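Repro case for the chain-ordering regression, as requested:
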Amino acid sequence: MTPGTAALEAMIERLGAAARESAVMFRRAGSAEAWPREGIEGLAAVVIADAIVAETGAIVLFGDDRRLRPIMASRALTAHARPDALVPTFAEALERFDGAGRMISICGPSRTADIEKTLVVGVHGPSEVTIVLHLPQS
Amino acid sequence: MTLVRIPLDTPTRKAADVTLKKRGEVVARVDWERFRDEATAARRETTENLDALVEEFARNATASGMKVVRAADGEAACRAVMAEIGESPEIVIKSKSMVTEEIGLRHHMEKLGFTVFETDLGEWIVQVRGELPAHVTAPAIHLSTAEIAQSLSGALGRTLPPEPKALAGAAIDHLAKPLRGARVGISGANFLIAETGEIVVIENEGNAYFCTSAETNVVVTGIDKVIRARRQLPPLLRVLTASATGQPQTVYTHVLGRPGGDGVRRTIVLVDNGRRDLVAGPYADAGRCIRCGACMVACPVFRQVSGHGYKTVYPGPIGILVAPFLEPQATPSDAPFYSTLCGACSDICPVRIPISELIARRREDLWKSGKTPAAVRQAVGLFRRAQGSGPSASIARRILLAVLRHPALRRGVRVLRAGMRR
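-- result from build under test --
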């Protein structure tokens, strides 16, 4: 299900703002950019997002730990998505989870503020997170 | 007269201020009161139907391929965990869980020869120092960077600079190998969804992911974490993260469903340990608690004494109410008097627990049952006598004035004032 053009544009705008706040890099795929294959290369993981939350810039993945462990062990995570993956909030992403394996929502780089509330980015999960949105070429 | 200087820039106060500020920013952006209402309604369902919801969760979790074990108390819970991971000592990784602190699981395992790594940074810091967490979501809230540097330098056997980034980096390096390699991972849970049998865990560091995806994953949590439906989860997560750390959403939200073909064996140990008694009695409202710790950072007493001042695993205003049920041995008899009854806790509680009112009730209960500490009884007697007339009232008034002018009490008054300034 793909949202209508106006609704889609509004969601993309929201996603852009949320991504900035969550320290997620966000861009639209270039016209020559091919749809990628999911995989791990060195410390980088490329994934196809099962959902992207516009409100927070979270990448949502479903599956078992054979898929998810290498992704969580990577340093740089890039999630590719088409408009049908965009959902307004976490609630709609949760609705899409069929209960098989686990669902993980990744909202920005791993972080801690356990030492005097000082933000330290890059803990055990990926320390760089990017969302690439592939829109149909018009 | 001696002047008592009250430090206003302690780590606890500073951290509390940062959290309250960030929380305020999130609250201002959303329809906060509506989310609070939804979260409160969801948790009220839990306390009113606890047995039925736990039963439903256990049934659905079992059907989805997890093993469910019920534990009546802490000892039974520790035994259940050991039964899952076997007797031969090995390396175990653990993510944050207040329930495991409550039942003393780590000490139990260490006595049996296991090497247990707390993998949440704050939790590891207090593990290294041999302390309890000072706050439910910010274990090391009471420590300065310099104190942490000293403790971690001792633990790692090299001198670390008092810089958060360097200290976190050293901890990450130290924990990375066990985190990825350990066969057994112990974790907690933030919510259990009855209708699906799913387990929900939120975190920021990524350590809980590795603990929940170890070959053998044992989830240890309280039966009170159960909620009826999936659709109740989003508002609960919103109020929990905003209240705990001031984030709109944590970095990671894990929903553990049916274990797949990836070989992860998951057992969940559902701990009662006083929770059914809590929701069955006059303090049932406190059973709604989602362990965000907002009442702690808002409390003028907690802000001054920090978590260890309460002597219980669950500190602060909500700890005064739940500790007598979950850890009766550890709860001091004068705990309900570690409160000014100012009401800041009730005002901030995301699930609308009337904490301050319940603390007042607890005092009343203690008074009626004759268990009020002697010092409090004497003070109340003095106030009563001072209100009368004649020579004994005049003597009582003189004693009261002398006591009230005592430096120790001036200190208390200044703490109060500082708390109110917020």
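Ordering looks correct now. Residues 2 and 84 of chain A are 5 Å apart (CA to CA).
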